[in-house]
Amino acid sequence: MNNDELRARFNPDGSLLRRQQMRMLDILVEVDRICKKHELRYWLSSGTLIGAIRHNGFIPWDDDLDIEMMRDDYVKLMEILPRELPEWLALQNDKTDKNYFYYYAKVRDRRSFLNEGNNYDRIWKERGIYIDIFPMEKHPIWLHKLTEKSVGHMYKIWRTSSDDAKAIKSVRRIFNFNNRLLFPFLRGLLRISHSTLHTPHSTITSGMGIPYHNPRYAEDIFPLAEHEFEGIAFPVPHDYDHHLRCIYGDYMQLPDLDSIHPHVNHIEIYD
User: Fold this and answer.
1) H/E element holding 68?
2) What is the pLDDT of residue 271?
3) Region 247-264 average pLDDT
4) Cα 62 from chain centre
5) φ/ψ (deg, to 5) at 114
6) Strand ranges (DSSP E) for 157-215?
7) Nearest to 265 by CA among 107, 119, 64
8) Distance (Å, rounded) from C-alpha 5 to C-alpha 271?
9) For the residues 98-114, what does the mean pLDDT come to?
10) Average pLDDT for residues 6-15, to the nearest whole number?
């Protein structure tokens, strides 16, 4: 099927999914504006990057949008966004939403509401359409997998508990231990080892505690290039083909279209 046929099947103009996608695009445009203003580097990632390359926009059935940036730029952006986002948008991280326990951030549209299938969002302050912003770090895959294990019990508590108040206390305890003690300690060890061995690591993966560990490589990402996404040029890894093949294999091959399932159970969009 070509792009027009896919659009007609999954996200025709005026459909709820297409309206959600356009709202996510609006959020991305604002984040892009702020990043360019402050010279912060980011790039389209995951399914959003596949969509840019394969469809010049969203994958027709996709209901999320992901960007990545190196942790140093991410930390700066987290300080800037609360001051510069328009009123209809909200930054969601552990500082702006006390019950939010992901190690990456979201920018939420306050003119909408959604309920995700995993039900993790049931205790969050912001529940609108969003884009994900992932901090990326240079460290070996084995170390990242170690940090994933440190948060595994947190997700289990969140998923299975019938007492939200009790779960919040337990999850917050694990989150704070990782964020304030374990992860800074591991980053310090990495800095010392890199300095001593004079071998800075080129493997990039999601920030510590984020449950995705597919490797990226600095030489594939930088310097950044641009590619069309929904008629607008956004930053992408300069060798996006090798970058995507390392993660997904033959990313140009369409999946089984009859086995596609959305991330979102329920969504409302307000004008």
Assistant:
1) strand 66-70
2) 78
3) 89
4) 14
5) -145, 155
6) 203-206
7) 119
8) 28
9) 95
10) 94
Burial of 115 (0-12, 13-18, 19+ CB in 10 A): middle
Is 269 buried (19+), middle (13-18) or exposed (0-12) by CB count in 10 A? middle
Taking the CA atoms of 204, 57, 102 and 210 in sequence, report the sign of the dihedral they define.
negative
Its sign, for the CA torsion 154, 158, 160, 166, is: positive
Angle, CA 47 vertex, CA 112 and CA 263 arms, to 5°: 45
Is a pLDDT exceeding 70 seen at residue 200?
A: no
Distance, in Å, from the CA atom of 147 to the CA atom of 177, rounded to the nearest integer, reads 12
Per-residue tokens: 67: 């960007």
For the cut 90, the answer to whether the pLDDT of residue 202 exceeds it is no
For the full predicted model, state whether its pTM sits above 0.90.
Answer: yes
Distance CA 164, CA 160 (A): 10
Percent of the chain with pLDDT over 90: 75
